[in-house]
Amino acid sequence: MFYKKLKSTRFAGVVLASGLLAFNIFSAHAQSQLDMTTHAGEAYKKADLELNQTYQAVMQKFKNDKRTKSKIKAAEIAWLKYRDAEMEAIYPGTDKQYDYGSVYPMCHSMELTAITEHRTQELKLWLEPDEDGVCNGSRH
Hints:
The chain has about 140 residues and is mainly α. It has helices at about 1-5, 10-30, 35-60, 65-90, 95-100, 105-125. The chain has 6 helices and no strands. The radius of gyration is 17 Å and the shape is elongated. Residues about 1-15 have low confidence and may be disordered.
């Protein structure tokens, strides 16, 4: 059932790869659903920390370019709204625990981790641009 949901998400490949890898890691060490949920939550916290560090590095890079900095900040605010809306679209139920069962917290964290890792890669383009890219814009 979880795989069917993944196939319909925008980040299916990323989530599936991250999710299956995470599930294998969790099941090798975890003895209960609570353990797997805890590990998934820790993975999300790690991904979120990396995202925030990357965002701060980008802001630091453009500290003297107020226009670009404000545009990146606006994009990040929009991304946060997108992330939250995407999660609600994936799990639209009003009583999430009831609607999706005991795996919901783990699955929710795994989805958030995948979405967050994807955004981190997008932000890294401002830090590690393609030197030959003619369409880099402010990512030069």
